[in-house]
């Protein structure tokens, strides 16, 4: 199995990030702006190896926890996931708030925070 990035984190300014999606995939963003929050899946491409127990945030004052109980980038599969607030969608560029990824980070998927069928039956669409 091979994951191909669909885009990249283009810029990070404070808590606001821009994600640029590959132009040939931009059509897949249709109606994404109907969501206040979206899930961004990305690759921890600068992380090597993993630890099964970590101090959250790398701070030894935090008690040890299993890697799957934390958001550590040092994971067996270096996949990150963050629910962000969608501020703007313009063409193939998303502006989001709350992404915990760096500039240049490969993005592998985007999903709405809520299932479309649940929103539809709740009268949102």
Describe the structure using short key phrases.
mainly beta; 6-stranded antiparallel β-barrel; two-stranded antiparallel ribbon; 8 strands; globular
What's the helix and strand layout?
Layout (H helix, E strand, L loop, with lengths): L6 E7 L2 E6 L15 E7 L9 E2 L10 E2 L12 E12 L2 E5 L8 E7 L3 H6 L4
Antiparallel strand pairs: 1-2, 1-8, 2-7, 3-6, 3-8, 4-5, 6-7
Short description:
By secondary structure, the protein is mainly β.
Tell me what you see in this structure.
With 125 residues, this protein is mainly β. The chain is built from 1 helix and 8 strands; from the N terminus they run E-E-E-E-E-E-E-E-H. Strands 1-2-7-6-3-8 form a 6-stranded antiparallel beta barrel. Strand 1 and strand 2 form a beta hairpin. The radius of gyration is 16 Å and the shape is globular. The mean pLDDT is 93.
Number of strands: 8
Enter the CATH topology name of one domain. Answer: Elongation Factor Tu (Ef-tu), domain 3
Radius of gyration: 16 Å
Q: Biggest sheet: strands, sense, closure?
A: 6 strands, antiparallel, barrel
User: How are the strands of the largest sheet arranged?
Assistant: 1-2-7-6-3-8
Give the CATH H-level superfamily of one domain. Answer: YaeB-like
Helix content: under 10%
> What fraction strand?
35-45%
- Which regions have little confidence, pLDDT < 50, spanning 5+ residues? none
- Please tally the helical runs, counting DSSP H or I stretches of 4 or more residues: 1
- Name the CATH class of one domain: Mainly Beta
* Overall geometric form: globular
Q: Provide the residue-averaged pLDDT.
A: 93
Oligomeric state of this protein:
single chain
Terminal CA distance reads 35 Å
Order of helices and strands: EEEEEEEEH
Give the class from helix and strand content and strand pairing.
mainly beta
CATH architecture of one domain: Beta Barrel
């Amino acid at each position: 199995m091979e994951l191909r990035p669909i885009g990249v984190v283009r810029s990070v300014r404070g808590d606001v990030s821009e994600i640029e999606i590959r132009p040939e995939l931009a059509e897949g963003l249709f109606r994404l702006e109907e969501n206040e929050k979206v899930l961004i899946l990305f690759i921890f491409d600068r992380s090597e190896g993993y630890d099964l127990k970590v101090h959250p945030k790398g701070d030894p004052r935090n008690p040890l926890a299993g890697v799957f109980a934390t958001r550590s980038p040092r994971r067996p599969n270096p996949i990150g996931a963050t629910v962000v607030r969608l501020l703007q969608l313009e063409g193939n560029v998303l502006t989001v708030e709350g992404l915990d990824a760096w500039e240049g980070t490969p993005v592998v998927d985007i999903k709405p925070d809520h299932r479309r069928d649940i929103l539809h039956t709740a009268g949102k669409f």
